[in-house]
Amino acid sequence: MTPDDTSSFARLVLVTGPSGAGRSTAIGALEDAGYETIDNMPLGLLPRLFSGPPLQRPMALGVDARNRDFSPRALLDALDVLSGLPGPAPELLYLDCRAEVLQRRYNETRRRHPMAPDESPREGIVREFSMLEMVRDRADVLIDTSSMSPHELRASVEKWFAPQDRQPLAISVQSFSYKRGLPQGADLVFDCRFLRNPHWVADLRALNGTDAPVGAYVAGDENYSPFVERLMGLVELVLPAYVSEGRSHLMIAFGCTGGKHRSVYMAETVAEGLAQGGWQVSIRHRELNRFATLPGQTPRNTEDGEQTA
């Protein structure tokens, strides 16, 4: 099987392999790709789980030796049962890893092996390898994680199972007031209080940064254009790097004194620029209690051959 042979719609993936091979990382990657995920799922509950309505989105289930009813035969029987139910055919993702690498990982984390809680990890690794041999042979996709970093494993899982049209990075742009503190989870924060303040203009005070007169006033500041130009260059530089590092979410926040004028206009401006660059962006103006989403726009050719959004 190759990645191009698979469908991204309502897929059902069972993730297994020896303990320490990266199952949690793989499950996290699938969850970020839009899958409903359940880790450490008891095999006996699988028929009940799929006895209801058909899947509305892809699902990934983590199963391994920690499950109280786990056995190679039980897992293979569960695959056969699921194959006979209405809905997507189950796919088995097996994460493999060399024994010496697994032992090193256990030594580094100092965790007990689930199959040898009172013995050395080596004993548990040997037992688990022997137990999983027949499961490994049944795998639809096998990924050897021995020489992979977590980022590389995530990328490999996404290559096989993530929808091909999925944006790899969820971007949120927010405006806020410094009086109420920074937004929780903000990754990049920019202070807009150096720009001239519409609050001190009587005709603009009751408006906000989504109103054209406020935008024109803020954009008229001599520092505005250089700030936006350098800011967009920085953001366009770091976004692909965040994707390469395996990040799935990024929040960019703009703050001003009241969170109503300057920060709102800057958030709108940057979000629109990112959308024109092909990124889907969600916008939140915290102090205005407003939310919006801008879909990514594909640049198109004009008559003179130049590209525009």
Fill in the CATH topology of the largest domain.
Rossmann fold
Helix content: 25-40%
Specify the biggest β-sheet.
Answer: 5 strands, parallel
What fraction of residues sit in β-strands?
15-25%
Strand order of the largest sheet: 2-3-1-4-5
CATH superfamily of the largest domain: P-loop containing nucleotide triphosphate hydrolases
The span between the termini is 38 Å
Question: Order of SSEs, N→C?
Answer: EHEHEHEHHEHEEHHEHEEEE
Shape: elongated
Task: Extract low-pLDDT stretches.
Answer: 4-9, 299-309
Number of domains: 2
Mean pLDDT: 84
Backbone CA Rg? 25 Å
Number of helices: 9
Query: Count the strands?
Result: 12
Structural class, judged by helices and strands? alpha/beta
What's the CATH class label of the largest domain? Alpha Beta
Please tell me the CATH architecture of the largest domain by its name. Answer: 3-Layer(aba) Sandwich
